[in-house]
Amino acid sequence: MKSITRIAVIIIFLMFGLFVQLGNAYADATTNLVPAWIKKVALLWSQAEISDADFVNDMRWLVEHRIIPVEDLVENVDSSIMPDSVKKIAYSWSAGNIPDSEFVHGIEYLIQNGVIELDDNFVSRTQQEKISQISVQNDTKKSVVIIPVFTASAYSERGFYSYYAGDCDSICLTSIIYTNVPLGYTSSGKAVSVLESLGYYTLTDIDVDKNPKVLLQYDKVILLHNEYVTQKEFDAITTHPHVVYLYPNALYGKIVVNYPANTITLVRGHNYPDVKIRNGFDWKFDNSNLEYDTQCNNWKFYDITNGIMLNCYPENHLEHNIGLLKAIKDY
Do 68 and 139 fall within a single domain? Predict the structure, then answer.
């Protein structure tokens, strides 16, 4: 049977199933997670009357149209190998020997292991509930994230870190400003992606340096690994009343900007121009010693004069940490 014909049959079964459900409104919905007519498809597959590919296509369609209610969709590996155990589950379920939940877990397993590849835009009900807890799309308070383009530039090839490593002289303490390159680990690339997807407004270091008062338009400022900033940007951030310092080692090196030349230059900090100088602003809340905790197993925020600071470097954990993202939203 061709796939398009099978999908049409599935739709017909679905419409029939809806009429049956309407006629049995008193049924216990918690025990009937999957429409019973899907057992026919499972039986045909378990008896090799339809191919693995046909079964996968059918299940993908049913999941994406929310007829099979999957929940846990985190992909563990990319396998594409159909395990015999799932086929046994499908047969047992079609025979009524195991509950719907076991069949659903089997489908979730196929999704997690890359056998069933869903549309990139598909979001499960559980994921939707989690996103609603951490999204700021509908918040009345305006929050803004400052994207650390100056720091990304400082870490670029033949940038500040070439000087620190002894690979070139002080000429490397002047770097081109890169605004269109992908942000990496040292410039909070994952954080920018996650927070933008949740509805946070964004500005760059350049925006704040050119117009420090722009931060006053926002109720909350979220600072990332903005390690290198100008004096004007430092002042604007440290005088705002509501700042989330999400990454240790922010506001560490003082730079000046030459906009006509499109460059930044380090003027103070990170052992320059004297080896005894650490924080270029002599900032009393410098927490650079905490940046080496990249596991964030015991993450927490602590209070400072104009906001809260995180006690670890969250770049590799932020996208999976609902509690941390909710704490950012709720502050």
Answer: no
Helices 52-64 + 3-23 axis angle, to 10: 50
Q: Which of 245, 254, 185 is nearest to 220 (CA)?
A: 245
φ, ψ dihedrals at 193, nearest 5°: -60, -45
Q: Is residue 325 domain-shared with residue 240, that is, in the same domain?
A: yes
pLDDT of residue 95: 92
Q: Are residues 135 and 106 in the same domain?
A: no
Taking the alpha carbons at both ends of the chain, their separation in whole angstroms is 56
What residues does 308 pair with on adjacent strands? 244, 303
Angle (CA) 123 129 134, round 5°: 105
* Cβ 31 vs Cβ 99: under 8 Å: yes
Bond preceding residue 260 cis, omega within 30 of 0: no
- Where among 99, 122, 145 does a domain terminate? 122
Among residues 90, 122, 154, the one where a domain terminates is 122
Return the amino acid letter for 132: S
For the chain, the domain total comes to 2
What is this structure's pTM? 0.66
Categorize the per-residue pLDDT at 257 as very low, low, confident or very high, splitting at 50, 70 and 90.
Answer: very high
Range of the domain at 321: 131-330
